[in-house]
Amino acid sequence: MLHILRHSPHAQSCFASCLRTINAGQSLLLIEDAVYGLFPGTSSRSALEYLPATVRLYALDVDLQARGLALDDVPTRATIINYAMMVELTVEHRKVVSW
Amino acid sequence: MKSLLVISRHPPTRRQAREALDVVLSAAAFGVPCGILFMDDGVFQLLKGQDAALIDQKSLAANLQALSLYGVEDILVCQHSLGERGLQVSQCILDARVMNNAELAGLIEHYDQVLSL
């Protein structure tokens, strides 16, 4: 299953709700304001880093760069992807949940 | 004339971010003594190194730079909100004054009108 998260971790409860419901072996893609969750030194980043190792974590490149987060500052467990790869992800996964 | 404080609480991608700047710039253009406080996700507006064109949006940088040109007296940023987001005031594009919680309470008392967007 692919979870797509698009809201800032600070403004909406869906960031926390998504992290609570995600299961081992699933995928999580951060787009739009959800990429703020990867900023260094935040509790949301720790929460993402402590997800089970089998959860695959992705983030959209342009959304990171547009918001001023350098791609080098993204944690190593997150895979940076572009729009084309996002489409592939949604096709690969049998089910997609948009938060 | 009554003074106006605008509290800008939305990230730069939201229309409310631009609207808060429009309100404060318009008020300043009419000679209203005003200030803007960046709080909650609003502090992300100030972050250096953003490239809004990548997501087909217009950068807020020009509007932010206009604040001092229009005579907006107080350009303020909430210390707690910066800290929560792992940000330092040195990462801000504007020379914003950092306010702690006690100072914020005094600030809101000080202004005649307060608008939170």
TrEMBL record, chain B:
Gene3D superfamilies: DsrEFH-like. Transmembrane segments: none annotated. InterPro entries: DsrEFH-like, Sulphur_relay_DsrE/F-like, Sulphur_relay_TusC/DsrF. It holds the Pfam family DsrE. PANTHER family: PROTEIN TUSC. Belongs to the DsrF/TusC family. This is Protein TusC. It comes from Halopseudomonas pertucinogena. The lineage of its organism: Bacteria, Pseudomonadati, Pseudomonadota, Gammaproteobacteria, Pseudomonadales. The gene is tusC.
